[in-house]
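Exercise 7b. C-alpha cells:
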C-alpha cells in the first residue's frame, strides 16, 4: 500500500534553512584547525609524507565508521545512495585534480615562494571555484549573495596578506604558476564533488582520501622520503580523521544543499579559523588586521545565510537516486512503511513542476535566471 499523505515542504523548515550554512562553516572550521597542528608535525616529517598520512587517516577512520554503521543500521531502505559505475569519471577527476595534482603543485610552489606569498596565492581557490560554478556548472548567486561571497573572499585575501609587505611578491614565476594551477585544480575538484554530493558523503570521502593518500605515499617513497616516528604517524592519522575526513563529509553535505559557489565562500573562512587556532595552540599573536578580516568574513557569511532567493521556476523531468524525504520535490509514491520525514534513498522520477519557493543551486535547481 502506498502513502497518499500530501508531501512535506521541507524547504520551509527553519532547521533546513540553517543546516547548510552550519555544515559549510563547520567544514571550514575543522579544516582551519588542522593548520597549527600540522605545523607542529611538519618538522618531524617530509611534507608529502605528512599530506599522505593526513589523507590516509581520513580514509582509515571512515572505513571504521562505515563498518560500525553497517552493524547498527536499522532495517529498511538505505539512507544514502551508494557510488555507481557512472560516478567513476567524476571520482577519478576528484582524486587526480584535488587529491594528487593539487597538493603536489602546492608543495612545488612553496619551494619557490615565501610562506607569505604562498598563503596569499592559495586564496585563489575560492574565486576559481565560484567562477567555474557560475560559468560552467549552472549555478547562480543573487546580488546579496554575490556581495556576501565577495566580502568573505576579501577577508581571506586580507588575512593572507597580513604582514606580507613587499615580501608578498618574493619568489619566481614557477612558484606563482604552480600554486595558481593547484588552486584551479582544487576548484575543478570542488565542482566535481558537488556533482557527486547526491551520493553517500562517507563513501565519496573514503574513496577520495584513500586513493589520494595512497598515491601521495607512493610518490613520497619513490622520492626517498624517510618514514616519520610512530608517534608522528599516529598523530597525523588522528588529525586527518577529524580535520580532513569529517571536514570533507560536512563539505559534501553542504555542497549538496547549496552548491559549490556558496560553499566556496563559506569554506574561505578556514584561514580565519586557522589564525585563531594558531593563537591558542602556538601562541602566535593576532593583530587588529586579523580581527578586521574576521569581521569582514562574518558580515559576508551573515549576508549569505540571510539571503533569500525565490521566484517562479520550472522543473524539467528528471530521474535519479539520492537521499530525500517526502517534500514538495519528491511527491512520488512511497511504500507505507517508509517514514515520511526520515531520509531514504531509491531511484525515483521527478515529473514536470512549476512553482515558487526559496531555493539555492542544488541538484534540483539548475534552471536559468
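Sequence design result:
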Amino acid at each position: 500500500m502506498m502513502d497518499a499523505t500530501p508531501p512535506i515542504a521541507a524547504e520551509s523548515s527553519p532547521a533546513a534553512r540553517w543546516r547548510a550554512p552550519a555544515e559549510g562553516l563547520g567544514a571550514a572550521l575543522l579544516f582551519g584547525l588542522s593548520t597549527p597542528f600540522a605545523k607542529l608535525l611538519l618538522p618531524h616529517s617530509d611534507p608529502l609524507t605528512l599530506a599522505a598520512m593526513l589523507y590516509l587517516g581520513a580514509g582509515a577512520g571512515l572505513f571504521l565508521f562505515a563498518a560500525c554503521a553497517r552493524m547498527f543500521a536499522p532495517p529498511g531502505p538505505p539512507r544514502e545512495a551508494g557510488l555507481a559505475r557512472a560516478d567513476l569519471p567524476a571520482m577519478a577527476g576528484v582524486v587526480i585534480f584535488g587529491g594528487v595534482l593539487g597538493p603536489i603543485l602546492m608543495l612545488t610552489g612553496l619551494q619557490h615562494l615565501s610562506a607569505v606569498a604562498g598563503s596569499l596565492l592559495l586564496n585563489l581557490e575560492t574565486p576559481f571555484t565560484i567562477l567555474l560554478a557560475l560559468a560552467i556548472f549552472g549555478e547562480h548567486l543573487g546580488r546579496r549573495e554575490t556581495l556576501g561571497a565577495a566580502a568573505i573572499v576579501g577577508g581571506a585575501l586580507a588575512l593572507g596578506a597580513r604582514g606580507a609587505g613587499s615580501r608578498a611578491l618574493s619568489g619566481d614565476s614557477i612558484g606563482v604558476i604552480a600554486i595558481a594551477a593547484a588552486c584551479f585544480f582544487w576548484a575543478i575538484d570542488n565542482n566535481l564533488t558537488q556533482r557527486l554530493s547526491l551520493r553517500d558523503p562517507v563513501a565519496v570521502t573514503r574513496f577520495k582520501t584513500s586513493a589520494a593518500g595512497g598515491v601521495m605515499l607512493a610518490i613520497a617513497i619513490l622520492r626517498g622520503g624517510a618514514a616519520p616516528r610512530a608517534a608522528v604517524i599516529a598523530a597525523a592519522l588522528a588529525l586527518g580523521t577529524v580535520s580532513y575526513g569529517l571536514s570533507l563529509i560536512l563539505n559534501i553535505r553542504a555542497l549538496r544543499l547549496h552548491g559549490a559557489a556558496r560553499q566556496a565562500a563559506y569554506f574561505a573562512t578556514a584561514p580565519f579559523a586557522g589564525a585563531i587556532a594558531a593563537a591558542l595552540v602556538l601562541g602566535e599573536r593576532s593583530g587588529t588586521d586579523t580581527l578586521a578580516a574576521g569581521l569582514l568574513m562574518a558580515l559576508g557569511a551573515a549576508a549569505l545565510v540571510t539571503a533569500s532567493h525565490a521566484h517562479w521556476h520550472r522543473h524539467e523531468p528528471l530521474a535519479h537516486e539520492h537521499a530525500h524525504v517526502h517534500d514538495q520535490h519528491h511527491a512520488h509514491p512511497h511504500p507505507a512503511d517508509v517514514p515520511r520525514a526520515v531520509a531514504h534513498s531509491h531511484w525515483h522520477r521527478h515529473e514536470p513542476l512549476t512553482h515558487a519557493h526559496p531555493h539555492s543551486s542544488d541538484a534540483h535547481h539548475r534552471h536559468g535566471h
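Instructor comment: Strands lie at 310-315, 318-324, 344-350, 353-358. The chain has one domain: 26-307.
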